[in-house]
């Protein structure tokens, strides 16, 4: 110990002359900042600048279509997030704690699922519940109706269809951090809880849930932000009747060439995402996560 | 109401591996039974069959008059304390202790009183509002014990409860546990440990386990003074085990005649002579053994001598020597005839 202290000062003095020849630290920050500015900040700046065209905000914010899209976007995102949290928590509990053959395979499949493009899920749902999908086919086969499109399943083009697709696609994003958190749980705690007389439901509520809350919040906030900005799923399923903010940006910019309006919607969408993320950070820090 | 624990031919198998082999054992009401053995001996598995975390492949487990073999853990009414405390980190100390009472739907109004009582009993009354992370290891274990006692269990399962604590804390907690047991004389305690000092200090009886089997069971004095198996003799107190042949009024150790009580052992039979290291003296005396010093260890108050006697290594703990004999020097050891125990089975040198 004493010898280490004795040798420490010469090391420091040896570094000093060397340091003057090295490149200042801020130089190393330049390339990433330049790339970030070029591909992200500059285009974002252009969007904001475009949105500031005279009267653009007043016009867009006053329009019914914008307000409808805003409401639809928020309730779909919140609904899908709640659905993903509930479904993801239950499924992750089963995968982690109910011993069944193939639990490991399921857990690995979730990793693969995360890499799937969102429209793939939507496409699969179209095959099953779409107007001319399998469910309607079975129905018409059973009832002898004339055309497949007479079947009872037409909800995919409604907000409920979007909700179903988003929950299906985003649930694994909640499960992944949850499964990691479950694997960190001390099984002795669960055993002691049960020996003290707690039934499984109480153990889940009073021991497991409080301890994985940070993971649940992380997964939930990720899904919330992703749902707010989801485009592919809405385009594939709800195209007819469901308009969200990203859809509105798309239709204003590409279909109507109204760039100013599109940029206003985009800025609102960005503000919404960042705002909700900020709320999440504040809440999670208060919760001690 | 008091109730003990009864293992009735309890066997636990995982595939081809038997981790607990036909354990039959009774823990009397109010008794402290230590399950003592090396790791992998099946002692923790035995405890877990009582708690309900392991289902026996064969045999039954009873708590009092109840056959609990097929009951889920939460219906067994057991207090349990484990090595790593397993406190609920998000709950305060008092909430941890109240957990079992709430889970068992105890009348709400009585819970604070019961929590305070359990915390007082373990000396943690002043820490009720703290979180587990603000406590030391010893304090956390006290809270874990309070949590187990709060539900007033008939049976308390302690699974290596002191193994995570340092030596000084451990001896303090050992005294605490002994005091708690005096205050709660009706609680049956199953105490799993690999530490013979804990078992000897605390237990009314000790069950020695090895390789999934119960090897020996008796009071600490019986096991220490009159072990029935070579494993018990070496695991409890680290005895010398010497292969001998029974003679007319003693035994023969590689040509040296020794006077020891032979009981009803048949003359000419192979046997194992068991002598505790601290009962062997240095110098001339009855039952003298001549040998050469192979190793000397200083242990503060004593010296541990390893002496090679006719090809057998004998351990002797003698009071601290002023002049330690040099390695290789010839010494004489002796022991009183009544301090030796003759075991039936022949063994190799322990």
From TrEMBL, chain A:
Residues 70-280 form the ABC transmembrane type-1 domain. It is found in: Cell inner membrane; Cell membrane. InterPro entries: AminoethylPonate_ABC_perm-PhnU, MetI-like, MetI-like_sf. It is a multi-pass membrane protein. Keywords: Cell inner membrane, Cell membrane, Membrane, Transmembrane, Transmembrane helix, Transport. The chain crosses the membrane at residues 25-44, 74-100, 112-132, 152-175, 212-239, 259-280. Belongs to the binding-protein-dependent transport system permease family. This is 2-aminoethylphosphonate ABC transporter permease. It comes from Streptomyces hydrogenans.
Automatic annotation (TrEMBL), chain B:
Keywords: ATP-binding, Nucleotide-binding, Transport. SMART domains: AAA (SM00382). Signal peptide: none annotated. PROSITE patterns: ABC_TRANSPORTER_1 (PS00211), ABC_TRANSPORTER_2 (PS50893). Transmembrane segments: none annotated. The keyword Secreted does not apply. GO terms for molecular function: ATP binding. SUPFAM superfamilies: MOP-like, P-loop containing nucleoside triphosphate hydrolases. Gene3D superfamilies: 2.40.50.100, P-loop containing nucleotide triphosphate hydrolases. InterPro entries: AAA+_ATPase (IPR003593), ABC_SmlMolc_Importer (IPR050093), ABC_transporter-like_ATP-bd (IPR003439), ABC_transporter-like_CS (IPR017871), Mo/tungstate-bd_C_term_dom (IPR008995), P-loop_NTPase (IPR027417), Transp-assoc_OB_typ2 (IPR013611). Residues 5-236 form the ABC transporter domain. The keyword Transport applies. This is ABC transporter ATP-binding protein. It comes from Streptomyces hydrogenans.
